[in-house]
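Example complex used in Figure S2.
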Amino acid sequence: MPTLARFDHVTRRFGQVLAVDDVSLTIESGTILGLLGPNAAGKTTLISLLEGLRRPSSGTVELFGGSPADYRNRQRLGSTPQETALPSTLRVGEVIDFVSKHFENPLPKAAVAEEFGLGDLLKRQTGALSGGQKRRLSVALAFVGQPELVLLDEPTTGLDVDARRTLWDALRRQHERGATVVVTSHYLEEIEALAQRVVVMGQGRILADDTLPAILAQVGLRQVRLTSDEADRIGRLPGVVRQELTGDGTTTFYVQDSDAMIVELVRSGIRFTGLTVRGATLEEAFLTLTEPKPQSQAEVVR
Amino acid sequence: MSTLSLTFVHARYNLIETARIPVALIGSLVFPALALLFFVVPQRTVADNPDFATQAVVSLAVFAIMSNSLFSFGLNIAENREKPWDPYLRTLPAPGLARVFAQVFSTGTLGVAAIIPVIVIGGLFTAASASLPHILLGLVALSVGALPFMLIGICIGYALSAKAAIAVVQVVMFALAFAGGLFLPPVLFADWLNTLSKFLPSRQARELVIWAVQGGTLEPWVWIGVVVWTALMLGLALFLFRRDEGHRFR
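Predicted assembly (552 residues):
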């Protein structure tokens, strides 16, 4: 698989803030790579380094074998504007034309419009579009130049379920036509729906880089909360990743499979009251990744 | 895509965007003509003398294009830098130079449109006169003399926030206009001010256009000044444009 982009020990500081901290990452052709992390994890900074908008404080960023700051290396790169950014007086068709004039082999306007459901809107000024329509146009712009590598920063944040699925379908079709896609999100659901490889970021560092199933096993956690005198025994049941004492006397357990865990809990005969189960948020799941385990501690020391 | 064709693409869409907001157009097109009507036409000693009147029309044409350049470059760029569309444009495969030139072209086009009413009013209501070839030559000289103002505007736009840019543009504009002899003719200047004036792009542009319209000799300091200002400001604009990426975070 040819390498499209590479980060080699890249660090980016903004004053005192360390936005990207010693990241090394290779993006190969052919995958949908999900970049998952909470807000301020460094995802957007990483993307902007690849777009040539920023330069690394140290380390090197390579795009198609050269510097992303050189516009010629961006000929095969597609990226999206924030949907609030579209020039409000230009018409949808004009924006698509304008972007496609930058590329040697652009998609025909009609094809772009059809793929992203913009056919009826071409004559409309972008200021008159709904939020979902603007988002579709923004994402469509990334594909106008038939790029090999597409960077999508939070492509469906704020969209309703239907609009989100429509956009995901379009992204999958574009990927099948040969585009390699990097998509950032702080929604596990979005990454689950699209990505094949997942890179988890937190505080500017890469916390995990693995296949989707492997990452899901690590971050797709559920919270089981209950009151019991034997909390430590429950904590040793299979599938419990982490436990913490909550202020009101209950204990919260983070588990990979809550159904199996509760079956085990009932079988063990441990007495408990006030059982509730809910999905863990991604932030909560990230804590289990960032908490040093014995083996990762050894890595830090090294 | 060549830098030149991308320059025209960007310039064209800049103009379409501006044209969709008619108030912006009217403001930049009408203001210089009004200045001529209010400041020159009522002063008959100037307005009835062909030489003085022509120079006054030239001075106001230079002022028109200068204020147009400074404002539209300084403010547009400063505002655009604060809008998220601009970072997206920078991810497209277009060289920075194409975007700088595009802004030069689009504002230059508007600037030329702004001085047409100045010429018309000058021709109808004052004794100013020039043949058509001289007027055309004057327009060419004007667009050459305008380059430093556009580039100064670009530098202000890339160096400052939109709010700061408004204030700085106004100070720079009036300082250049007065000291450059655009409001008061340099013959009324004290010697020291006249010497200082010759180093300013506004005075150089004024003399360049007067030479193109009225003939006579072109002093070397005029064209050397225009070339030096253009080169210096182009270098500074490119430097600020590239440095700009580091400032956009938070």
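The interface with chain A takes residues 1, 5-6, 9, 13, 16-17, 20-21, 83-88, 90-96, 245-246, 248-250 of chain B (CB under 8 Å). The mean pLDDT of chain B is 87.
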